[in-house]
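User: what does the whole thing look like in 3D?
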Amino acid sequence: MLGIGLLCSASWLQAQDLTEKISLKADGRTSLAELLRRIDEQTRYSFSFLKEDFSTIKAATFECREEKLESVLQALQKQYRFEYSVSGNLILFRMAAPQTRKPAPAGYLYGRVTDEKSGESLIGAVVQIDKQSVQTDMDGNFAISLPEGTYTAVLRNMGYAESKIQQVSISGGDSTRMNVTLSRSANDLDEVVVTALGIKREEKALGYSVTQLNNEDVTDAMSNNWTNTMEGRVAGLNMLKSNGGPAGSNAIILRGENSLSGNSQALIVVDGVVISGSSGQLSGNGSGAYLDGDSPIDFGTSLNDINPDDIETVSVLKGPGASALYGARGANGAIVITTKSGKKQKGLGVTFNSNTTFESIIRWPDFQYEYGQGVDGSDTWYSYGQTIDGASTRSTSSAWGPKFEGQSYFQYNPLTRTGDTVRTPWVPYKNNRKDFFQTARTFTNTLTLEGGSDKTTARLSYTNLNNRWIVPNTGYARNTVALALDQHVTSRLKISTHINYTNKSSDNLPTTGYNNQSIMYFIRGLVPNANLEWFKDYWVPGQEQILQTRPFSSLLDNPYLIAYEMLNKVNRNNVIGNITASYQFTKELSLMARTTLDWASEARSQQRPFSSQKFAAGMYRTQNIFTQELNYDFLLNYRKVFRKDFALNASFGGSRMHNRYISDEMRADRLLYPGVYNFANSKDLVVALPYRSQYAVNSLYGTLSLSFKDYLFLDITGRNDWTSTLATPESYGHSSFFYPSVNLSAIVSDMLPLPQWVSYWKLRGSWAQVGSGGTTPYLTAYAYSPTAFPSGLANPQAIANSDLRPLITTSYEAGTDLRLFHNRIGVDVALYLNNTRNQIISVPVDRAAGYNATILNAGLVRNKGLEIEAYLKPVVSRKRDGFNWRTFGTYSVNQNRVVTLAEGVSNYIMSSGPAGRGTIEARPGGTMGDLYGIGYQRSPDGKIVYDESGYPLWTDSSIYIGNTTPKWRASWGNELTCKNFRFSFLFDGQFGGIGYSLTHSVLAEEGKLTKTLPGRYNGITGEGVIRNDDGSYRVNDVIATDIQAYYKAHFDRTNIESNTFSTDYIKLREARIDYTVKSSRLKAMGLKNLVVGIYGRDLLMFTDWPAYDPQFGTLGDGQIYKGFEIGQFPSTRSYGFNLKVEF
Amino acid sequence: MMNNRILIPILSLILFLASCRKDFQEINTNPNASVAATPEALLTPALYSVVNSNLNRAMRLNNVLMQDHVPLSNNNDIGRYLIRPSESDYMWNNWYLQLNNFRDMYVKAGVVNDTTLMGVALICDVWLSSQITDMFGDVPYFEAAKGREGIYEPAFDRQQDIYADLFAKLETANRFLALNKTLSSEKKAADPLYQGDPALWRKFGNSLYLRLLLRVSGKSELNVAAEIRRIAETEAADYPVMTSDAESAVLRFSTTPPYISEFYNYRDYDFNGAVSLSEFFVNNLNYWKDPRISAWATEASLGVYMGVPSGYAEGQVPEQMSTYLAALKNEPRMGNIMNYAELQFILAEASLRGMISAAAQGFYEEGVAHAITFWGKTMPENYLASDGIAWNEGATAEQKMELIHLQKYYALFFTDFQQWSEYRRTGHPRLPQGAGVQNNGQMPSRFKYPVYVQSVNSAHYNAAVSNMGGDDINVKVWWNKP
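Assistant: Here's the predicted 3D structure for the full assembly of 1625 residues, as structure tokens:
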């Protein structure tokens, strides 16, 4: 832990060349100590002297201009009898002879502070001894003058364990050398977290809540999208998942939604590069999820593509208090990702990390296989095509037909591809849906090379990921190269760079949503008596590329045709990188200048063959998407420890950000020749849909951090932004705005004498504002929209506003962190209140004004909530390899309130369900995820009202159905270690929200769920009442005879209420067992470290959700919408094997 | 000095950051949109938008109310005369957005003093405004489409005042178009209806004038009879009207995007899969052996066209019989705005009611013939003499009205809400009623205002409702009031 080298009697060296130029003017009233301090300030050296000796001497008048330090010191030496010596950057002074007043003779303590592991010098470490404290310089050196005696020295450095050195004896007139090595802090108390702008801070100094994850958290149970691993580990984090296939995107929302315009996602920052506004943005293909012209495809974002093996830490800055320095885009909190750097070590470090993951479907709707194809009334016969048995019942997708009772009918013959001439047994194919899917597998292999010297460290990693997904012929490949280089050019100048290059490509990503060409549309349309084998040969023989095999409903494209011919390709190149130079002017003052780039270029294409339902003559479309965000910034930092317990850290910085987006889409929606996918083969004029946008933000910002005695911390920040989105073509508008924040933290356990069992108690509070001009450009000037027609223009649907102002989020946060019994128990509680006002929204107006909406600043949305993160260590072994058990949990609850909207606007539709059925609205007094839609008519006592024929009645207009945002979330995790084994598992759950399920609706409408079995062919009397003519109600006493109409009247997709279910779930999110091979054995194998592990994700799911997974989002036109599940894919459980070898 | 080494670069950076918002104005200028628009640029998109949204709503509302077809979904209550308030938004919203384009076109044409385009813009304005007021009654008109001037809550105007202004606009348009200012070939290409021919637009405008005059002919306030006589007879030379099928106002769809019909991208199933033509619609055509049926309907079984009853009782969903021919999805004639046959039926009724002197029979028979030829079919021999079609001079006025309007009903096939408006005005053609019909068997007289208007334009909404005597589907609009 602590290495002390006490070397006594270091020899005094002769003064060496001190060439720095000094200017000084003393008027005779200052002390010699003050004079030396002023010289000290002008040099890179640290002066050290015993204050008592030097401050009693009044200095005479003294003046010099641009003279060498050496001659200045020599001139002073002539007047005063002192000696000095130089050691590195340290100059030690002592009086040459005793003064008249006889003080204790002075001694000196000096030395160097280094990192225990790497041996690197630690700059700015604080050495406290006998009421004095000094900081180490750029080379880690320090020196203090002290009266003779024995002392205790305390050494502190951020991120390192505090170390106390007892019995440091100083003898008068002598110097004592003390070299100290500090070790990285082992306990959580001195944890260093990465805060806004990548500034590393001690957790205890922060006035706001930050959750930091480390590499193990994101790699223990690998997911294709590493952001999944944050679930259950961060209180207050809500993940909205597109479930859109192997590249599935997630939207991350911290502390509830606040943006009426829809984007409440957290800012994502990788090594100082903001990626959420550029390559991290989900961009759609213009299609909605429900029966649109085409269907959305999840092409993923660069956030998904970050290689988890390269991640060192992930800091989750939840509120504006934490992210205020990120400015405009930090209002929704930030996820700050730091990738690994190289480490100084002997020789080359080689690590190989291999993951193999398999995924299989975890859960299915409750399908019925008792009745076959047919509509109501065709339960007595089945006939594929018109036969002597009766009219054809082959084309419906409904399953209200005859029961499977061993009888035989004329059915489809896969050889002749038409009706059979003989009757064949009427049997269900119970695995016809399941058999379509395959086990997914993902191989991820990472090779890392790293090493370094005193001056240079480097890390290079290469990762290859290869995925095959559950839908046949889908998957993707990803190659990532990450480079981190740090070079100390001189002792003052450091240059470093982190660059991540990713190539992701896929020959086919699955089409999502509910539409003819989506797999899940087929799966719900498949009838129980259809054999999946009949679809496998998907072209009609002799008509390849012209006519597909489609035995049943013509609405259902053959799933193998979808998988093998309707291809969605993507090839994406992405560079995220930064180049940073930092210069240490003095030990207090440093400057960092950086340029960051997030650049992505993506080529996508979609092709559809002839004979597909939506594109009978084929289709070929391409999109070329270019995104770029360029950022330059600088940060000037001044830190100073005052001798009497005060420390100051001030930063001042500025940045210029420029974001560009270009999308060029080409469409050929009919082709001439089948099977040829290029634009030369277009039947019509190729349609081009270009789009460009850009915006820029200039910023200046500053922070002032003050600390007292290392237990009281105050941070003040301020930032001014100039945002192009608020400028107009004529003026700057309101593009300049300022916002401040104040954070306070107190370590009560250090301030007050508390019982021993209180290990740590911190109180914190924060008030912050964040302004934003939004990231949507072009809202300030009126312009005519292009139309599909050549030389055709149209008035815009929203009226531009040249007087647009920034929105302001004001946040209040208070919290405490309490740890007891030697840190065996810890609880962190955060309470917050966020008000977001003046949102930039399209406020709907009476369309009679000629417009849908006008762009206004309006609305006030309030989020308040509570977050708890806690841990307990029930068993802590004293032995090195003993049994240890750590258990932890999170709980978060958020309450959202729409306080006001714009004047006269009583509801604001945020999104709507399939073909406008049901809406998610913000209404004053309501909350942002409120779902409205058609529901049942109910009697005063809440019973469903049926009509005189026995069918349920619906309301005429939308009613409130419920709220789609879960009220609270919780998680519980455990880690057990014993000897070389480690076992961990994590549960999480969400509660109190509801969601609409189209999958449930369409399956129930078509009689494919077991819940539609009761009443078949005898009729059914629904539970509820009938309204009598006199207005009273009687218990429903009518048998509804049309069973299909009965269930359709209940579960028609228009009936939002009956298709809405609780989205509560509990999932066994992760489990892992790993084994680390003992080091003694490793040596024999020539290895440094060897870990093998098996892990699983989403292993168990407990829920009442009727479809696949209650945790869903729906992809539509570049956004992930919540509340409406529209044709979701089955969700999977994954399990895998991990091997990590360090050479 | 060290201080300068630090300060100079930092100060210059600050100055750079503070000053370099100079480019903000350029950065925030939209490269995807145009700051200016020529008047003719606004015409084609707006026309397509209106005609296509009308087709969409004809399919959902007009054709169900008027028994062209019957939805086979038990939950569709429109055929039972129950209309949910939410049905109103689509038309209100789409129509007013496009009204904005037509009115903007007029202003922009005025700037360059292009009288032809001014006339075109006025006719389009009148055509669209009449649809809005016919559906809802009192609606924002004079202050409508002025959001850009900051009028977000336009006042509602009385229908009577609106109609007076519509006629004034048609007079102006007739004068402008009489100047016969020819357009450049570029501008001609921007007109999908008449390729910029002022004479044809003028004929359409005046034919529309007659449609609208007849619409309000039940009211004495506007001296309609005299006006119809003036236009159709006494000053006919100054008011040329359509003279042939070819001069009909039809937005002829092609199969080349974007010049496609609303239904072009529909799946067959969505177009005709869940509906069946009605008995009323099919039986008349069957009875007349009308050739148009093969252009409109599928066969229920080999060579047989059959319909299903409209307004069936709840739960008694009929089996699908004949339905719309899938070819109608991209049929150019579906873009009908106003055809020559309709004009003939207007004149026939005007004659029947003594507003003009020429005999009704001639107009009627011309209308019948051209309603068929419009669809590219040949009128069968003796068709005009056949039962149910032949004009009987001795019949009662009521019988003649039925004769005219039954034929007019087919001439207005898929023409916005014209079938319904004519039915509301005249009660013709006489429609059968199914057992499931609600609303006391009363055809809805108007649509309710969209619900959201109550909150975003509440004061004017309330004033309009009190002026109209309620916001209900059974409140009659001004021209329909007795």
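In plain terms: Chain B has a mean pLDDT of 92. The longest strand of chain B covers residues 69-71.
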